[in-house]
Structure formats: C-alpha cells, structure tokens
Amino acid sequence: MEKKYNVDSFNLDHTKVTAPFVRLAAKKVGEKGDIVTKFDIRFCQPNKEFMTTGAIHTLEHLMAEYIRDEMEGVIDLSPMGCRTGFYFTVWGDRTEEEIANHLVNVLSKVAVWDKPVPATTEAECGNYRDHDLEGAKKYAARWVEGIKATGWNCYK
Ligand code: ZN
Predict the structure, then answer these.
(1) How far apart are CA 146 and CA 112, in angstroms?
(2) Taking ligand 1, which is a single-atom ion, which protein residues have CB atoms under 5 Å away?
(3) Ligand 1 geometric centre to CA of 112 (Å)
(4) Residue 128 CA, ligand 1 centroid: distance in Å
(5) Number of Cβ within a 10 Å radius of residue 84
(6) What pTM, to 2 d.p., does this model score?
(7) How many independent structural domains does the chain possess?
(8) Separation of 60 CA from ligand 1 center, angstroms?
(9) What is the pLDDT of residues 114-135, one digit of tens each?
C-alpha cells in the first residue's frame, strides 16, 4: 500500500487503536544486517486524553533510566509531542510482547516509586522544575493495569 507520509506514525489511523498498548512502529535492517526496532508505547487514548508535561517528563526520566537495567540493547526512549506516549528504540528484532513484559516490570516499580527521580538537577535536565512524580506514578499504575487487563495489542 502507498504510504502518504515518511513518518510511520503519521500513517497510523489513531482512531482505530485502543490504549494502552505496545505497537511495533518500525523495523530497520542496516547494510550489514543489524536490526533496529522502534515501538509505540501508548499510555493515553489518542485525541481523548493526554499527559501533563510534568508527569510525562518524570515518566521519561524513570523509564529511560530503569529500562536499561531491565534489558539489553536500549537505544532511546523519548516522549511523543502529542503527550499520549513514548517512542522506544532498541537493537535487535524484538517483539511487542517482549517489550510489553519488560515495561510492565519497569512501570510496576515506577507506580510505587518512593526514591528521588534521577537526573533532576539544573545541571542534569533541561527543565528540572517541571516534574510531577505523583502524576507519573498514576500513569504508570494505570498502564500496567490496562496491559494486564486487555493485553498489549493496539487493536482490541
Ligand atoms: Zn528532564
């Protein structure tokens, strides 16, 4: 099928998916056979709800730091501009189920986080005052509950 846009997620029909979910957004194979996979980690139902900047920012700090303790080959985890979720990019040919299981482990810890949020000093963060741990914990708990209840697939 002909794609309208260069960016994978612009071609996704956001009215057809049900959050929360983990969706394989792209798989790239390099000249030497290395594989990079990119996932759409959705927290909020598109165009119905979005996270506050403080909550998504704190979620980013906690997830980006602790997903690297959970699994090998992490390249990047970054918030979406629409504030409904994150992009997560890893080395290797990974499945949605594998990524969902790792994220359930990380976000279960985030949901009850009682330690300092990593890298929240003026030297370590680009907007260190804009953090909301209570909001991040709420979204983390809800994501885990949703995935456990209805699964990681985006088409429910
Ligand atoms: Zn930051």
Answers:
(1) 16
(2) 125
(3) 20
(4) 6
(5) 23
(6) 0.95
(7) 1
(8) 8
(9) 999 999 999 999 999 999 999 9
Q: What is the CATH number of the domain that holds 29?
A: 3.30.1360.80
Cα 141 to averaged position of ligand 1 atoms, centre (Å): 21
- 16-34: per-residue pLDDT in tens? 999 999 999 999 999 999 9
Helix (H, G, I), strand (E, B) or coil at 87: strand
- Closest by CA position to 67, among listed 16, 106, 116, 96: 106
What's the gap in Å between 1 CA and the centre of ligand 1? 39
Structural domain harbouring 85? 16-150
- Give 62-115 pLDDT, tens digit per residue: 999 999 999 999 999 999 999 999 999 999 999 999 999 999 999 999 999 999
* Coil vs helix vs strand at 7: coil
Find the 127 Cα to ligand 1 centroid distance in Å.
6
